[in-house]
Specification:
Length: 250
């Protein structure tokens, strides 16, 4: 293949999927492990010409149920970072979308969820003390998309395919080894939908893994629909990655 051909192909793909979306980002103080206040996050992403950012702060037993706060306060504090990011995003033209990174008392696995709203953030509180399986069997919402974050990092247990809609294959957090090659092989074998995200926590790491979309997603539901469609690209380090086809439907 000539370089010209590759350049042309890249340009065409890039033009067909112009919108750049972050699916995995943390703000401080809602995620105490993040160094980035909401207002700073949107500035950093505006500089990187990102169009939409999903705020997926940690929602864990330790941060919510064991925090010493009332349920109302824990939920309000969780949502406060999202509202601050959204307001700051409006000023610099970045669409800010609500997601969450859930953890259950059973273990250290993390799960990203989209297609949710503020009422769901409150509802999740009831499930923290149980298992992921219990959550998936008893919490139902049309159009929600549930995926395991960085499933092949140390200390993670790879979740059963039947309990997931997708998996985060390309977790680009530079301080962790997410074994993306093994993750990619796994999702193809299992027919799961792959996602990409920066898992943004620290200055300098912004926008390392982005989704590329044909139209701008406006809501958490739009993100869930976009992932289900498999009609997107994944971008990291200037590479564009095309997700594998849904083999079951062929
Ligand atoms: Zn974190
Ligand atoms: Zn995360």
């Amino acid at each position: 293949m000539s370089t010209d051909f590759i350049e042309k192909m890249y340009r065409e793909l890039s033009e067909a999927y112009p919108y750049r979306v972050e699916l995995h980002a943390h703000t401080s103080p809602a995620s105490p492990c993040s160094e980035i206040p909401p207002e700073v996050l949107v500035e950093m992403y505006a500089e990187k010409k990102v169009d939409a950012v999903c705020i997926t702060n940690h929602y864990t037993p330790a941060l919510m149920r064991e925090s010493g706060k009332s349920r109302e306060q824990a939920v309000a504090d969780y949502l406060e970072d999202y509202y601050r990011t959204k307001e700051a995003g409006e000023k610099c033209g970045i669409r800010v979308i609500l997601g969450a990174e859930l953890r259950f008392v059973e273990g250290p696995n993390d799960y990203l969820i989209f297609g949710i709203d503020e009422a769901d953030i409150d509802a999740f509180y009831d499930y923290m003390g149980g298992t992921m399986q219990d959550f998936r069997q008893n919490w139902h919402k049309d159009g929600a998309f549930f995926l395991q974050a960085h499933p092949f990092r140390n200390k993670m247990t790879v979740a059963e395919t039947e309990l997931l809609d997708g998996m985060e294959v390309f977790n680009m957090h530079p301080n962790h080894n997410s074994r993306v090659g093994i993750a990619a092989e796994h999702i193809v074998r299992e027919g799961l939908i792959p996602t990409v995200g920066t898992d943004f926590h620290h200055p300098g790491h912004q926008a390392l893994g982005l989704l590329r979309a044909k139209t701008l997603p406006e809501t958490s539901n739009d993100i869930a629909e976009l992932l289900c469609s498999r009609d997107y690209l994944m971008e990291t380090g200037g590479f564009l990655i095309v997700p594998p086809p849904d083999c079951e439907k062929e």
